[in-house]
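FAQ: What does the model actually see?

It sees only this:
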Amino acid sequence: MRLPEGQQCTAWAKRLPEVVSALNNEVTTLIGKKPAEAIKEKLCIPNLHRNTQDLSGITKRYLYQPGELEGGGKRATDPVWSLKVYNIEKYVTKPNEPVLYYLQDGPKRGFVREELPVVPPNSELPPANS
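And it is asked to produce this:
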C-alpha cells in the first residue's frame, strides 16, 4: 500500500518496543544467555569453541587481506574471496579466544570462522584471471 504524499506510516513504531523486548528475552547461541541478562554483566564471554567439527571435510574459500593478491593496496576490482577452494587442515582453540582454522595447502595464517564461507558442491567459481 502506498501512502499519499507527505504521510508517514507509524505502525512499526507502535510495535517496536514489543519486538525489542522479545529479542532481548531470547537466549542467543553465541553467549548462551538472554541479552537482557548479559547487558547487566561487566564481562560476557561468548562460547567461541562451538561448532568446530562442522568445518572439517567441507570446502572453503578465504577472505583476502588487503593487497594479498597483487602485493600492494586493495583495488575496487580485486576479488574479496580466494579464487581456489581449500579444506580445513586443523584448528586451534584457546580459552576465551576465537577458534583459528588453518587451510590445507593455503596461506600459513589462521582464519576465524567468519573468514571462511562454505563453498557448496557444484559451485562455479570465478576464473583465476579475473
